[in-house]
Amino acid sequence: MNKVNQTVLSGVQPSGNLHVGNYLGAIKNFVTMQKNYDCYFCVVDLHAITIKQNPIELYNNTLEVVATYIASGIDPTKNVIFNQSSVSMHAELAWILNCVTRMGWLKRMTQFKDKAGADKENASSGLFTYPTLMAADILLYKATHVPVGNDQKQHLELTRDIAQKFNRDYNCGNFFPIPEPIIEDNTSRIMSLKDGQQKMSKSDPSENSRISLTDDTDSIVKKIKKAKTADIVMPDNLKKVIELKEVNNLLNLYSGFSDIDKVKLIEQYSGQKFSSFKLDLSELLVSKIEPISNEIKNLMNDKNYLLNVMKDGKNKATEVAKKTINETYDIIGLVRYEA
Ligand code: TYM
User: Fold this and answer.
1) pLDDT in tens, 120-132
2) Residue 5: what pLDDT?
3) From the candidates 153, 202, 240, 303, which is the catalytic residue?
4) 21 lines ligand 1 (CB under 6 A)
5) How far is residue 291 CA from its own chain's centroid?
6) What's the structural domain count of the chain?
7) Engineered SS bond to 24: which of 5, 162, 187, 304, CB 3.0-4.6 Å?
């Protein structure tokens, strides 16, 4: 199929423990979109350091995200895979966008409130301006489409506001295109296996709350067996299922990995105890995750290969990023010299 001449950019933080939420909410879409779009898949290491990281783990986790992209089916020869800090224009554009973004806009961001917790005065200022760096990631490549999970929706809306304000303030037409978020209906917010009110998260202290992409068969089976459901049998309609948050979440997982419509799955399991549904779900998850997990392990044993993919990505990304930064400096009136 021919590409549509539109650009996708998305990113994943190298904060470890990538899980099925990251996969279904974002990475699965990256794999699909690579067919039709020019794609930039970034490992957002500068975002990760808004919270203190262990340097050795950060380095390894960065390579592991690259391995996960490739193991999930992203072709490194046809897409640009790179780490954010290797292209310095991300930080340069972020500064410029900080000067366009209003304090009030940032103060409304719910992710900052969640991540900073009770002691906001002690959060890094990087965590507060996190969304402007994210806007820079997207606008640097003039991305038109951004596949993300539901928790990034507000950041995407902010990016759109920032792009519009820049275009208006500097009277530069549609210099920055207004990007469209691509958010799946059922899988954009996969919940914890222990609590249907909490998002599945890399930072949840309980391993049993999530299925990681590096989990082996035994852990997947055990975690699904333990996953919370309900004291009744599988209901016979979607409305009732949605009221049972944990059950709905497991059905979303099943549907996301099998591409079978949720209503069909409800028909298939209605009136049955959850044990047989859980058995089928763990079988499905093992069949889909095991090949990814094995490939991540293989790739992590070949770090030179991963570093070469990233270096190639950095070179390709830098070419585009440099052009946008030069144009941006000219628009603003910053003096620069041709190399
Ligand atoms: P991060 O690293 O937290 O998560 C990576 C992607 O996974 C999605 N996600 C989920 N989707 C469904 N269910 C869940 N439980 C779940 N948890 C996470 C996230 O929405 C995300 O799409 N700020 C971003 C990274 C970023 C970015 C960007 C994304 C930086 N620059 C530019 C897009 C474009 C983040 O923290 O993702």
Assistant:
1) 999 999 999 999 9
2) 80
3) 202
4) yes
5) 20
6) 2
7) 187
